[in-house]
């Protein structure tokens, strides 16, 4: 009996040790899984959250079907290159490309840019579209004739000044959700959050077309 007791005493700690080891292994696996999930969520969420931490917040809010329709209405009888400032998931750029524009989108969020490129490929307009990962304040828009902006009130005064300095007189700027503070719109359509304002820079800036003076011929 004494020998059996000693044998049991030796076996019990060993079994507990094995059980503790298994529990420890499961704990490490769970910890690793949770940690990996948090890292993945951080990687995905950071590009979305970071803009909100900037001085001027430009969050991603998808354009509604009515907004897209109103923007396209403001682009009727227009041609040339088009840029969407803060292009999000590429809806405006893709819609413009379908109308024949060579359309470009600038977006700070890399995940949205990659998704936009995928959507353009799915829509069959990837050859007419380009998407760039860039800060709008570091880009010159001087070679675009049509500009679409989904902005917020805090950024509109500074952006108005930037566009007025960079764009040619024949440019048209289309603002969605919020108007520019100083310019007077040439056209407005939509209601509420779907309102769209169109500005022809030649009117907002006061550009004048100079006509050539014809000197009458004198008889010799």
Automatic annotation (TrEMBL):
It is a single-pass membrane protein. GO terms for cellular component: mitochondrial membrane. This is ATP synthase subunit C lysine N-methyltransferase. Residues 1-23 are annotated as: Disordered. GO terms for biological process: methylation; positive regulation of sensory perception of pain; regulation of mitochondrial ATP synthesis coupled proton transport. The gene is Fam173b. Belongs to the ANT/ATPSC lysine N-methyltransferase family. The keyword Secreted does not apply. The chain crosses the membrane at residues 26-45. Keywords: Membrane, Methyltransferase, Mitochondrion, S-adenosyl-L-methionine, Transferase, Transmembrane, Transmembrane helix. It is found in: Mitochondrion membrane. InterPro entries: FAM173A/B, SAM-dependent_MTases_sf. It comes from Bombycilla garrulus (Bohemian waxwing). SUPFAM superfamilies: S-adenosyl-L-methionine-dependent methyltransferases (SSF53335). Its main location: mitochondrion. One of its GO terms (molecular function) is protein-lysine N-methyltransferase activity. It comes from the Eukaryota.
């Amino acid at each position: 009996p004494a020998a059996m007791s000693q044998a049991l005493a030796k076996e019990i700690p060993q079994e507990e040790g094995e059980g503790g080891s298994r529990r420890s292994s499961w704990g490490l696996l769970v910890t690793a899984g949770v940690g990996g999930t948090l890292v993945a969520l951080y990687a995905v969420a950071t590009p979305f959250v970071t803009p909100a931490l900037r001085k001027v917040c430009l969050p991603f809010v998808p354009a509604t079907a009515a907004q897209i329709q109103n923007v396209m209405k403001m682009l009727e009888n227009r041609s040339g290159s088009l840029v969407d400032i803060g292009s999000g998931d590429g809806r405006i750029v893709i819609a413009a490309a379908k109308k024949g524009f060579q359309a470009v989108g600038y977006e700070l969020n890399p995940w949205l840019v990659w998704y936009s490129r995928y959507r353009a490929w799915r829509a069959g307009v990837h050859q007419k579209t380009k998407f760039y990962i860039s800060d709008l304040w570091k880009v010159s828009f001087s070679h675009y004739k049509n500009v679409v902006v989904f902005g917020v009130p805090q950024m509109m005064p500074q952006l108005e000044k930037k566009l007025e300095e960079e764009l040619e007189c024949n440019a048209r700027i289309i603002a969605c959700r919020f108007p520019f503070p100083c310019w007077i719109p040439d056209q407005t359509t939509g209601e509420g959050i779907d309102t769209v304002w169109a500005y022809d820079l030649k009117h907002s800036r006061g550009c004048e077309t100079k006509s050539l003076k014809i000197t009458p011929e004198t008889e010799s």
